Amino acid sequence: MNNILENIKTMIKDGLIAEAQDALDKIIEQNTEYIDQAYYLKGNACRKIGDWQGALNNYQEAISINPESPAKDAREMMMDILNFYNKDMFNQ
Known about the structure:
By secondary structure, the protein is mainly alpha-helical. The chain has one domain (about 1-85): Alpha Horseshoe (Serine Threonine Protein Phosphatase 5, Tetratricopeptide repeat), CATH 1.25.40.10. The chain is built from 5 helices and no strands. It has helices spanning about 1-15, 15-30, 35-50, 50-65, 70-85. α2 packs antiparallel against α3 and α4 runs antiparallel to α5 (about 70-85). The longest helix has 14 residues, at about 15-30. The protein is globular and about 45 Å long.
């Protein structure tokens, strides 16, 4: 399974987001022991295409399955970035 996850990481890195998401959905459907990693990678795929809400939701799902998931750090980082962004500055 680790080889599959590594291949999915490569797909995300190479911009093959739809293919990566399909593969991750299959892992999630099978409810394997790697489901938290699948949600984390799905969050990364969403982030790569600018789907911030999808990324946060998938990271949160990974954290709920495994509180020690790397999704915890990724989610915190995204929240810091989103909280830093101040829309009012662009309305002046």
